[in-house]
Amino acid sequence: MVDTRQSSGLKPPKTSVGAIGWAQKNLFDGWFNSVLTILTLVLLWKTVPPFIRWALIDSSWLAAADQCKTADGACWSVITRNFRFIIFGFFPYDQHWRPTIAMVLLVGLLIYSRDRNRWTKALGYAWLVGLVTMGVLMKGGVLGLVPVESTQWGGLPLTFLLAVFGLTAAYPLGVLLALGRQSRLPAVKTLCVVYIELIRGVPLISLLFMSSVVFPLFFPEGVTFNKILRAQIAIILFTAAYIAEVVRGGLQGMNKGQYEAAQSLGLNYYLTMRLIILPQALKIVIPPTVSILISAFKDTSLVVIIALYDVLKTTQTTLSDPQWMGFSAEAYIFLALVYFVCCFAMSSYSRRLERELSFGSH
Amino acid sequence: MTLQTPETSVAAPADDIIISIRNLHKWFGEFHVLQDINLDVHRGERIVICGPSGSGKSTLIRCINRLEEHQRGQIVVDGIELTSDIKNVEKVRAEVGMVFQHFNLFPHLTILENLTLGPIWVRKTPKKQAEEAAMHYLEKVHIAEQAKKFPGQLSGGQQQRVAIARSLCMAPRVMLFDEPTSALDPEMIKEVLDVMIELAREGMTMLVVTHEMGFAKSVAHRVMFMDYGQIVEQNTPEAFFTDPRHERTKLFLSQILH
User: Which residues of chain A make contact with B108, given a CB cutoff of 8 A?
Assistant: First the structure.
């Protein structure tokens, strides 16, 4: 296409472009905005430099606790000196290399799987092998590895375990529940509605309590379920109900014509859903789905109430050591960073996915 | 109803029935949308169905591939009766192509993928072979250069031609058209009608709900007028347009022909 419109030859006025133009338009557009801008600048000047001095300049990174107490700045040694306990919890000290490798494997697989072009059958098998390897590394008992009871698992590996398995299992379950809720079969539909409404009407904490305190009462004495597994199931069931409702929203947003076009080609229900409806409906609901996944990831920290030592609990335990009492600001800032990195990675990946998938529809 | 043989026909209809509809009734709630419809469609026959909106003409052709379920009567397509047996319904749908008013292309798939989806998943055609066939049909509707694009990047007329090609890829025995040009801008109607006329020349069995009377005159064997859920009148295009019998037909024709 050739643009036939003639350029007038006039350039835009100087004040509307460049740094000055930008500042005028965005920062000093009217007296009210100018006051706001100045107030914000003052506030930033009052808070940011002192924080930087505390956190970076006057801080001690490796000093012992008693030296730290006399220093002005942040005492990051509460993290560095207790790093291995915070990250690994009560996992046997000389075996820490095992959860380390497991986590590296997990993060490596996650990063490699970012690109949708790499989603092949081989990658599926790689995940399978990877997950088995991680399980073996954590549990031990074979190949000359010292067995480690799951009661000793803790810290970041536990958080990742609960999150990764929780989210990957909850997502397909949620999709199935959403489809079930739309089913023409009254029994299936009722079952799904009751399930979703029941779970959504209960806080996660009570589900966790039930899974650890109430359920064992139903089993004969001596039969014990792994505590982590019980917490894991509670998280999966809880998250799936929320995902189901979000996916239902996406399904209802679908044009009836898409179903009709698929059916009129002779596609059955399963193929219609898999090839036509779900790819579109799930794409529409990526943003709310990721919100749910992010909050589910953070909610894994609630397992502290059934005495599982996830990374939040190990940090708190460190702080209850008399030697390190009083450094909670540093510890929680570190913890916040850990959670932020994970959540931000999820949300930026979801934006990338949305961008890639939006190519088709303008 | 006896079969009419118009002068314009190239492929004369073979004398066997591909769609047989007997005493068909359908209600939407209390509304009796189809009232005792009887219709036989012969192989190679081309029928244009017209009528005011709400007359049941779209519902009738949507019953033929069971996008709408009828409550009474019998529909037999190519020897298979349409019942609640979903396997039979899917068999019929694979043999009956449908073109919609709003195209209903799959927006998340490329044009080529839109065309090969049915053959690959329903007919189990190997991918390469399905793609070759798809390109053949895209050339036929004069749009092969758009194969790698997505539906959203095409004009309405182009999308409708793709939709026709998508149906053709399934090698259907019958094609149903539900107001295929009603949602198009005026300048795009002709390109779609031209494709449909070409299809008619090749002897495709077609049921077309449309108000394009020029199309009806040039390719239809039979023109049917529907009103209030009934077939009011049907005849050869020549007789239908020059000598309508019923008052309602006359009124309708005077309204759309100006």
Answer: 279-280, 283, 357, 360-361
- Spatial separation of the C-alpha atoms in residues B161 and B151, rounded to whole Å: 11
Spatial separation of the C-alpha atoms in residues B113 and A265, rounded to whole Å: 13
Is the C-alpha dihedral spanning B62, B68, B69, B72 positive or negative? negative
Cβ atoms within 10 Å, residue A329: 13
ipTM of the complex: 0.89
Using the Cβ of A317 and the Cβ atoms of chain B, whether some distance falls under 8 Å is answered with no
A360 shares contact with chain B (CB less than 8 Å): yes
- Tokens 């793609």 locate to B131
| Spatial distance between the Cα atoms of B25 and B4, rounded to a whole number of angstroms | 26
Closest-CA distance, A241 to chain B, in angstroms, reads: 27
Q: Pick A257's closest partner by Cβ from B94, B102, B122.
A: B102
pLDDT in tens, A234-267: 899 999 999 999 999 999 989 999 999 999 999 9
In this complex, do A265 and B94 lie within 8 Å of one another by their Cβ atoms?
Answer: yes
Q: Is A280 on the interface with B (CB under 8 A)?
A: yes
Residue closest to A235 by CA, chosen among A152, A175, A165: A165
Question: Does the global pTM surpass 0.90?
Answer: no
Half-sphere exposure of A287 (CA within 13 A, CB side): 3
Give the relative orientation of helices A328-357 and A286-299 as an angle to the nearest 10 degrees.
160
Residue position matching structure tokens 């088995």: A132
Q: How many CA atoms lie within 13 A of B248 on its CB side?
A: 14
Task: Search chain B and give the residue with CA nearest A357.
Answer: B108
- Could you give the C-alpha distances from B221 to A26, A96, A294, in angstroms and in order? 69, 83, 63
Chain B hits for A267, CB-CB cut-off 8 Å, are 90, 117-118, 121-122
For the packed helices B111-121 and B156-168, what is the interaxial angle rounded to 10 degrees? 20
pLDDT digits 0-9 by tens, B77-94: 998 999 989 999 999 999
C-alpha dihedral, B37 to B41 to B46 to B52, nearest 10° = 0
User: Which residue in the set B65, B150, B153 is minimally distant from A264, CB to CB?
Assistant: B65
Task: Report CA torsion sign: B33, B35, B41, B45.
Answer: negative
Amino acid in the structure at residue A239: T
Chain position carrying tokens 């959670």: A339
